[in-house]
Amino acid sequence: MADNQIRTESSEPDPHGHSHDAHESNAVCDSWAELIQGVLAIVMLAGAVLMVHYYAPAAVQGMPPDDLQKQVHELTAQVEQLKQEQAMPAVVLNHYRNSVGFISGIYHVGFANHRSSIRARVSGTGFLVGDGLVVTNRHVGEPWYGDPEAEKLVSLGAIPTLESLVIFFPGSPTPVNLSRISISKTSDLAVLRADDIAFVRNLPALPLAKSAGAPGQRVTVIGYPMGIAGMVAKSPTAIYERLAYRHSNDLSAASELAALSLIRPSTTCGHLGDIVGDKLIYDAPTAHGGSGGPVFNSEGEVIGVNSAYMDGFTGGTLGVSVDSLRPLIQEAKNTH
Question: Which residue of 61, 187, 275, 286 has the smallest Cβ count within 10 Å?
Fold first, then answer.
């Protein structure tokens, strides 16, 4: 497999040999040490400027007091911005954790009056944007999309079918059924509808940014990288020992985790490296299962939807811009 192959993150293996697994480990926000050092450096610089201003003779200062005061204000603003960026992962996780769910499903592809040629599982991430609408990737809501083996069969007349598709929200002991209502034909995006139940209605909708912004900004991604395996790995020791090596399907394992309040998303952080068309490129780590997760800016707004990554390049995580998401959401709201 070429080093620069692009993989969607929800791919998993199926009994017919088609690879749906991306062997990429989950990572956490391990860049905060560098960020804290930067904050401390700016604080020390601001302190030095203040000492010069108050204790050095005017002739030595070499600049008018107004200019010096302006620099102090600018440094203070930079410190405040860095503090906000440092705190943002915890803020978005605390505010929106329960609105970011784990999606699990089964699909099959086959010809009429014949046994299915493909029957496989899919897992991913989805998040609420209001009115019971759940945003995710097209390759999660329509999992045969991007699957070469499945698409080949479909081109020959096979019929793809979703056998089941549910979402587990943190705090809920039971899954919520999902139905497809809006699938993008140009981007890896889908908007699904969750069953209209009281629990879903009480969850907050994630705020969407007006635009993706500019490269260089810090980003936070919330999702379920590694799917069930990732959540089991984070479980208490007794639960981990019971579930880690048990051969069971995703739905039964997810149901058990949900009953124990162990459906818990992960957060990773990085920088937005580039924007090409509606594609976001950033270095927040991810893995299969993270597909469909929200990508936040430093203001706590969603600027895109986590989608895929490039093998062998940790800076090559890909997402779809909020600019392509807005019209799809509007289409879904107009669908009855």
Answer: 61
- Chain Cα centroid distance, residue 39: 27
Q: How far apart are CA 225 and CA 247, in angstroms?
A: 20
- DSSP calls for 160-204: EEEEEEEEE-TT-SS-EEEEEEEE-SSSS-EEEEE---HHHHTSP
pTM of the predicted protein model: 0.78
Separation of alpha carbons 224 and 266, rounded Å: 6
SS3 33: helix
**Residue 82 C-beta-side C-alpha neighbours within 13 Å:** 19
Measured CA distances, 260 to 123, 172, 197, 228, 308 (Å): 20, 10, 21, 14, 30
C-alpha–C-alpha distance, residues 305 and 298, integer Å:
15
**pLDDT tens string for the chain (336 positions)?**
444 456 665 544 443 334 344 333 344 444 445 555 555 555 565 555 555 455 544 444 556 777 777 777 777 766 666 666 666 677 788 889 999 999 999 999 999 888 889 999 999 999 999 999 999 999 999 999 989 999 999 999 999 999 999 999 999 999 999 999 999 999 999 999 999 999 999 999 999 999 999 999 999 999 999 999 999 999 999 999 888 877 656 788 899 999 999 999 999 999 999 999 999 999 999 998 999 999 999 899 999 999 998 887 777 899 999 999 999 999 999 986
Count how many Cα atoms sit within 13 Å of the Cα of residue 259 in the half-sphere of its side chain: 7
Q: How far apart are CA 86 and CA 80, in angstroms?
A: 10
Give the C-alpha separation, 137 to 140, whole Å. 5
The partner residues of 221 in beta bridges, in order of sequence, read: 268, 295
Secondary structure of 94-116 in HEC code, one letter for each residue = HHHHHHEEEEEEEEEEECCCCCC
